[in-house]
Amino acid sequence: MSARRRRTTGPLATLAAVVLFTVVLFAANSRVDEQAGAAPSYPDGSSGSATATPSAEPSAEPTAEPSPTPSPEAPPAQQAVFAGLTSGGEATLAMAVNDGAAAAYLCDGSEIEAWLQGTVDGETMTLTGRNGAGLTGTVTDSAVLGTVTTSTGLTLPFSAALSTPPAGVYESRTTIDGLATRIGWAVLPDGTQVGVATIGGEKQPAPPFDPASGSFELDGTTGTAEPVDGSDTVVGG
Amino acid sequence: MTDTRPTPDAPVRPAEPTAVPVPRPHRAAHPEPRDAFRLPLLSFVLAGCAVAVVLGVYAAEHEPAGYSLDVPGFSSPLYVKTWLTTAAAVLGVVQLLTAARMHDAGARPWTRTLHRWSGRVSVLLTVPVVVHCVYALGFQSGSTRALVHSALGCFFYGVFVTKMLALTRPGLPRWAVPVSGGLLFTTLIALWFSSSLWVFTSSGFRF
């Protein structure tokens, strides 16, 4: 009888141990993920756990930027790309809007990097990223003006003008030597590409990509930069 | 010397002293009809399918974090995974070698203990690997290797769940556990080939 009992409980204990171990590791990873904001080593949007928390920050801060040409009820462009710089020229910002959804990428080519995701409601754009990164802005027919906050706590005013390709947000996810690699580019209307490649948690300047095909080469691996649509998921998931 | 057949009147060599095993009763001895096993078995397989699908969908939908917890002592997280998988595969071979003894009444008791514990340790070794795969990398289909590896990884845990559940039911058809165990072993080795061997051959054999 006891042998039979062992037979039924043994595999279940194994199963439970595996499930428990998996849950513990996932929880540990999520915790590390949340704390990663303190270290500037990986401030871009990555895990779903952080998306809910920073939402209080943009709403607490009223839109400080004056909104020129306040055309009330001006419907935001159905599908549009805005690109520009922060006011001090610290970083390049590109954003893609699709109906009420928006995705943005802020980058200085080396240290500052933030993926942002959110909505456009009327003429108010509210985006959040990981580890407290966020953006609030006013959308007009020709530009988005507002303030962007990085995960390191830097708050930068910006203006981004309505732009046409090649301007936009570009992204590539690939694996280089077994390390998960995410590359983001913010491209200005004149074709300037500013990007960061994060390879297994380490940042380096992004390689240039061919505007026509999107192809690039990094450490001997070729990849393709994909344009990001406003409704694409760039944070969390 | 020549080996000659014993003549009919020669004394028959005495049989090995009572080594003739009593034939164990077959399944026919069970009063339950065959169909009694269908529903539990089906539900175990479906549970395994659900685990595989959930794992795959989560891995595909979750935005890859790009990193995961590290284990000290190795040159990179990549090699931690590589060696954990290698150790799990070696234990998988132990599993294969001891599996047949599980139902051998004459087998030494330690072979069963070895089978059970090598399996437990093996699957537990794969857990940090799969958490890293799913959390940091996600379901990838960029290359054939990545696609095959991702799909097999999901399949592996589905079969694992099915087998663990199946083991809790002593009365399942005789093929159920060997088939699931065989699938587990084959998948584990295929996972090793599509990950660890790939790392060793592309990045070098080191710790």
Task: Annotate the secondary structure layout.
The complex is a heterodimer of chains A (237) and B (207).
Chain A lengths: L1 H34 L20 H5 L18 E8 L5 E7 L2 E7 L5 E9 L2 E5 L5 E6 L3 E7 L5 E9 L4 E9 L2 E9 L5 E7 L2 E4 L9 E4 L2 E4 L1 E2 L10
Antiparallel strand pairs in A: 1-2, 1-8, 2-3, 3-4, 4-5, 5-6, 6-7, 7-8, 9-10, 9-15, 10-11, 11-12, 13-14
Chain B lengths: L37 H24 L15 H23 L9 H29 L6 H24 L8 H19 L1 H8 L4
Supply database-style keywords.
heterodimer, A: 237 residues, alpha+beta, eight-stranded antiparallel β-barrel, five-stranded antiparallel sheet, 2 helices, globular, B: 207 residues, mainly alpha, 61% helix, 0% strand, DUF6529 (chain B), membrane (chain B)
Outline of the structure:
Chain B: Keywords: Membrane, Transmembrane, Transmembrane helix. Chain A has 237 residues and is an alpha+beta fold.
Structure write-up:
The complex is a heterodimer of chains A (237) and B (207). Chain A is globular. Chain A has helices spanning 2-35, 56-60; strands at residues 79-86, 92-98, 101-107, 113-121, 124-128, 134-139, 143-149, 155-163, 168-176, 179-187, 193-199, 202-205, 215-218, 221-224, 226-227. Chain A has an eight-stranded antiparallel β-barrel. In chain A, strands 12-11-10-9-15 form a five-stranded antiparallel β-sheet, with no helix packed on it. A two-stranded antiparallel ribbon of chain A has the order 13-14. Chain A is 16% helix and 41% strand. Chain B is built from six helices and no strands. Chain B starts with 37 loop residues before the first helix and ends with a helix. Chain B has one domain (35-203). Chain B is globular and about 50 Å long.
